[in-house]
Amino acid sequence: MSILRDKIHSKIISGRLGKRFVIFILAFSSCFTVLSTSIQLALDYRADISRIEQQFNNIENSYLQTITLSIWSLDDSQIETQLAGLSQLPDIEYVSILIEDEISWEQGEARSSATKTIDFPLNYSAPGIAPQDIGVLRVTASIDNIYNRLLDKAGIILVSNAIKTFLVSGFILFLIWFYITRHLSSISSYLKELDFEKLTIPLNLSKKVEEDKLDEIDAVVSTINHMRISLHKTYKELHENKKHLQSLVEQRDALLESELQYKETLEQRVSERTQQLESSMNNLRSAQDLLVETEKMAALGNMVAGVAHEINTPIGVCRTASSYQQDNSHEIRKKFEEGTLTQTDLNTFLDDLDESSALFETNIVKASKLITSFKLIATDQSDDAIQHFNLYKYLKSSIQTIYPQFKNRRVNFNLDIPEDIELDSYPGALHYVLSNLINNSAIHGFEEEEGGTISISAKTDQQNLLLTYSDNGRGLSEEESKKIFEPFFTTRRGNGGSGLGMSIVYNIVSNQLKGKLELQKAETEGFCLMIIMPLAIIIEPNPPAE
Questions:
Q1: Do residues 425 and 380 make contact, with C-beta atoms less than 8 angstroms apart?
Q2: Is 468 a residue whose pLDDT tops 90?
Q3: Which residues contact 500 (CB under 8 A, 6 or more apart)?
Q4: Rounded CA gap, 148 and 156, in Å?
Q5: pTM of this prediction?
Q6: Rounded distance, CA 471 to CA 520, Å?
């Protein structure tokens, strides 16, 4: 019996959960006891001090007048009796009468270390006599008694509360062990020993269980048992799935064997097909390059035809004027030889000669400008070197060479370009980009009978050129805007459009001019494109070959 009691006692004491509860209870109870005791002692101290002050008030009200009369009449026995009565009052341990700061009568002894002393003035007054100060009554009360009573009371309160707290804590510790800790230990031991081979053994606690009075511990036990049953069922299914998986692995190995054989033949087929695709891609690149060159040559041919047509007009005028002047010269010579030349004939001949010379000068200058512009553009088209040129002058020359192609389409040009923008770039590439954009506007954007206006503006932003090209044509749909730079995309399929113009423009701007294209939203209707390119292209030298 003793061994069982010791075993239970050791289990109760060793439970960490119970210990924590007890420690918390002891800490809280101790703090509460100290606080409540302190408050109670403070209240008692104030009550005792008030009682002493009340004693002083009673002395002042009841004894002070009689003592004054006794001193005035010099009745020593009466004075001693009165002082002895005062010294017997509670907490009063010493009473004395001082006359002219010297002790004349005293009773008791001031033994306490903590005292409270009050001096009461003794004033005698009688009818016909002026009030006189005859001395001081000094009363000393002991506070040590109050401290001793408070200490005794505090000790009793603390000891009684400590005993009560320890008894309650011990009882709570036992209840925690009996209803919680021992069952948690049983659950912990069961779970530690749980094995897949022992899932059929249920968890049972050493307690009486009533179905209608299940507590939280019973709910945990029930949940663990349900989990055990589910785990046992899952384990059986897992075991069966393992067997099925093994059979699937065997089937997979067989499939891998056949797949390996298939891959060996497939690799050979893929290699052959890859070679065919590479050959097709090379042919496609060659065809695309040929189409690009064809587009460039076609553009150059159109420009040559337009320039030739424009040059033909001033040259034809010069030829007509030359023939007319030659006929006038023969007629004057004939009249001169016959002697029939008059002053009027000579003046008329000279006037016609001046007019023909002016006509020659105007048309030859016009033809010379066209030839110079064409020569500049044609040279830039064949020269891939970076050149320094003025943007305004170059674009003006480019438009002069391009304009004859579209004169019959009623295309007007509006240039808003500062004359001080200088570039170090590829002028031939820029001319090609501009001619393609103008060609697209004239063919795809404008109606042939109505024509339209093309606006070109430029500005600089730090080290970049912002060149804006726009027209007031029909513009682009949302679908066309997404595909405009794709190769072979055209809105005039079957009417001479190859679909390479804008793709070539994109490649030239991106690769050769080191810039980018941004489609802008036109302010009204039409097409708007911004070309962003550096003012100066810097080509890094190739690293030396190792």
A1: no
A2: yes
A3: 288, 291, 292, 295, 487, 488
A4: 12
A5: 0.38
A6: 12
